[in-house]
Structure formats: structure tokens, C-alpha cells
Amino acid sequence: QVQLVESGGGLVQAGGSLRLSCAASRSIFSINDPGWYRQAPGKQRELVATITRGGITNYADSVKGRFTISRDYAKNTMYLQMNSLKPEDTAVYYCKAYGSTRAYWGQGTQVTVSS
């Protein structure tokens, strides 16, 4: 069993920045393509960014150039640096990682961007 705990969300004005963290209870971020997802009220959960074992990143078009995904194997932690935030970035952000047989989700962290 793996626990993922997100942190770093909050309320920020448009144009501001936040850094989300996803701490895992054990080493997991080298398996498959872990990433960040988000879900806004009334909308389906959507992919924000993923990172491969080799460090190749993939971003949703809506966040390209503004968000950066990274991970620190030594700390069992994955990050999402979010810059130039927009009101439409408001959502609950979840991290997702993979074990040998299943995927794991964190509990989510709320990000609210005011205009």
C-alpha cells in the first residue's frame, strides 16, 4: 500500500504562483508515468502533467509554459510548480502514481485563483 499526500494548495491572485508537493510513503515515482491531475467543479478530472522515468514531461495545452512537473527520488516527492496562474486553473489538484499492480491517488489539494 502507498500513501500519497498533496500539499501546497491555497488561494492566490491571478498571475501568482504556487508549488504543489506530493509526498509518497515509499519510492514510487519511477514507475510508469506519474503525474498531476485536476478537477474543477462540475467538470471531469483532467490530466495536467506527467513525467516519465527518463524525465520526459508532458503537459496539457492549457498549462504549457506556465507549469513545471518534477520529482525528487531521494525525498519520494513529486512537485508541480505553477506560475502565471489564471482563474480557470481553479480546481482540486491530485497526484497519481503507480505501483506494480495498481495506481494510487492522493486526497487532493484545493487551488483557488482569484481574478
Order of helices and strands: EEEEEEEEEEE
User: What's the number of helices?
Assistant: 0
* Termini Cα gap: 40 Å
Average the pLDDT over all residues and give the rounded result.
Answer: 96
Radius of gyration using CA atoms only: 13 Å
Low-confidence stretches: none
Number of strands: 11
Q: Approximately what portion of the residues adopt beta-strand conformation?
A: over 45%
Which class do the helix and strand fractions yield?
Answer: mainly beta
Largest sheet: 7 strands, mixed
Tell me the overall shape.
Answer: globular
Helix content: under 10%
Can you walk me through this structure?
With 115 residues, this protein is mainly β. Helices cover 0% and strands 50% of the residues. The chain contains no helices and 11 strands. The strands form 2 sheets. Strands 2, 4, 5, 6, 9, 10 and 11 form a 7-stranded mixed beta sheet that branches. Strands 1-3-8-7 form a 4-stranded antiparallel beta sheet, with no helix packed on it. Strand 7 and strand 8 form a beta hairpin. The radius of gyration is 13 Å and the shape is globular. The termini are far apart.
